[in-house]
Design brief:
With 146 residues, the chain is of the alpha+beta class. It has a domain at 45-145: Nucleic acid-binding proteins (OB fold (Dihydrolipoamide Acetyltransferase, E2P)), CATH 2.40.50. It has two helices and six strands. The chain has helices at residues 12-32, 88-94; strands at residues 48-59, 69-75, 80-87, 103-113, 116-126, 129-132. The longest helix has 21 residues, at 12-32. The protein starts with 11 loop residues before the first helix and ends in a 14-residue tail after the last strand. Residues 27-37 have low confidence and may be disordered.
Length: 146
């Protein structure tokens, strides 16, 4: 029977190699774990509201980032609120745009993202056009268009 001493490398490079391998075995699983992402706000049908507002500002993602969410900063007589719409690419696909001064009616869920109150839009009415962004349960409809 061989002794344990025979299995261990005796050369300094062999010991270093073994140490590097052991370190890699410990570090790789830690790197494979995802860092906690800032969670996206979730639609809550229990906080759904309907309001009529005026668009103060249109916040579109930079060119080349059309998959990112477009926002509207809207105002009514009592408050100004950030409204999450949908990816910019979905607005483009639907042929919809918004501009400062547009009067709209929206249905959406009031949620908190950190310390900020916002609305996740489910439906936006502008003039005679209705843009449906989410189903009755709050699930995004733009995922259906992939």
């Amino acid at each position: 029977m061989r002794g344990a001493r025979e299995f261990l490398p005796s050369h300094p490079c062999g010991i270093l190699f073994l140490a590097v391998c052991l370190a890699a075995l410990c570090i790789v699983p830690m790197l494979a774990q995802k860092a906690p992402e800032a969670s996206s706000p979730k639609y809550d049908v229990h906080t759904e509201t309907k309001i009529k507002v005026t668009v103060e500002e249109v916040k579109l993602p930079p060119k080349g980032s059309e998959k990112e969410i477009a926002h509207l900063l809207v105002k009514n007589a009592t408050e100004t609120v950030d409204v999450y719409l949908c990816p910019k690419s979905f607005l483009d696909d639907m042929g919809v745009s918004f501009a400062k001064g547009d009067d709209i009616a929206l249905t959406g869920s009031r949620v908190k993202q950190g310390e900020v109150d916002l609305i996740l839009a489910r439906e936006v009415v502008k003039g005679t056009d209705t843009l449906v962004l989410r189903d009755e349960k709050g699930n995004p409809v733009w995922n259906w268009h992939r």
